[in-house]
Amino acid sequence: MDEETKITLRLPTELHRWLTAQAKSARRSLNSEIVYRLEGERDATVADAESPRHRS
User: 26 φ, ψ to 5°?
Assistant: First the structure.
């Protein structure tokens, strides 16, 4: 199992409502939804950085 770190996160109310709705729609917990979205953004950022147009 991957190591985990517990954090306290403050979100604007509207963002929390939206994320909660997205999680429910995807049948995920709020925590899983946040992790899913952050991992997706991380993977996209890494892929973009590794693309040929960003290499010197």
Answer: -90, 0
Write the pLDDT tens digit of every residue in 2-54: 799 999 999 999 999 999 999 999 999 999 999 999 999 999 998 888 887 76
Q: Which DSSP string do the residues of 1-56 spell out, in sequence order?
A: ------------HHHHHHHHHHHHHTT--HHHHHHHHHHHHHHHHHHHHHSGGG--
Six-digit token pair at 30? 């709020």
Nearest to 11 by CA among 43, 40, 38: 38
